[in-house]
Amino acid sequence: MNSGSKTILETLPSQKLNNVEVWTEKIDRDRYQISAKLTIPHSPQKVWQVITNYEALPDFIPNLVKCQRLPHPESGIRFEQIGSKCALHFCFSARVVVDFIEHFPHKIQFQMVEGDFKVFLGEWKLLPDCDDEHFSELHYSLQIAPKIPMPIAFLKKQLHQDLPVNLLAISQRVSEVFS
């Protein structure tokens, strides 16, 4: 576990987890989409600066232990990411090489080109709050299917627990950087 996960988990009031909406949709037999949404008290441009500083993400995103830039054959954005989590006496680690496509300042699409899943793709969306331009709605959506047989219920449960913490960690980081 990285030091960022310890910080966010120790300082996060449990009621804040309720501010994150999370929902799951079954796409087919072994493919799910999990989505989350959080309002952040900063402009989309400020949130964008934090979530596109990919190399710094492991400093504050729990269970993300590595995010390293790799060469891209077409001058795009490619990163190797490694996540690790232990739960219920079971440790799980996964590696993905992901290509990112940025549509400043509102959307980042990503798709695995190599890794430990059959499917791993999704997007970040940043929307200005309708009532206050200094607030943003941060949306995260991930389609995922395991490459090897594994209990999909376990994977869904872990993602459902981790996404609120991850989005709140981003919100906290934006506040630290811009306050």
N-to-C SSE string, H for helix and E for strand: HHEEHEEEEEEH
Estimate the strand proportion.
Answer: over 45%
| Overall pLDDT score | 89
Tell me the number of strands: 8
Strand arrangement, major sheet: 1-2-8-7-6-5-4-3
By helix and strand content, what is the structural category?
alpha+beta
The CATH superfamily label reads: START domain
Helix count, DSSP H or I runs of 4 or more residues: 4
Could you say what the CATH topology is called?
A: Alpha-D-Glucose-1,6-Bisphosphate, Chain A, domain 4
Domains, number: 1
The termini sit apart by: 27 Å
Question: What's the CATH architecture?
Answer: 2-Layer Sandwich
Could you tell me the radius of gyration in angstroms? 16 Å
- Chain oligomer state: single chain
Task: Describe the protein in words.
With 179 residues, this protein is an alpha+beta fold. The chain has a single domain (3-178), classed as START domain (Alpha-D-Glucose-1,6-Bisphosphate, Chain A, domain 4), CATH 3.30.530.20. 27% of the residues lie in helices and 46% in strands. The chain has four helices and eight strands. The chain has helices at 3-11, 14-17, 44-51, 152-178, and strands spanning 21-28, 31-40, 64-70, 77-87, 90-103, 107-115, 117-128, 136-146. Strands 1-2-8-7-6-5-4-3 form an eight-stranded antiparallel sheet, covered by helices on one side. Helix 1 crosses helix 4 and helix 3 (44-51) crosses helix 4 (152-178). The chain is globular, with a radius of gyration of 16 Å.
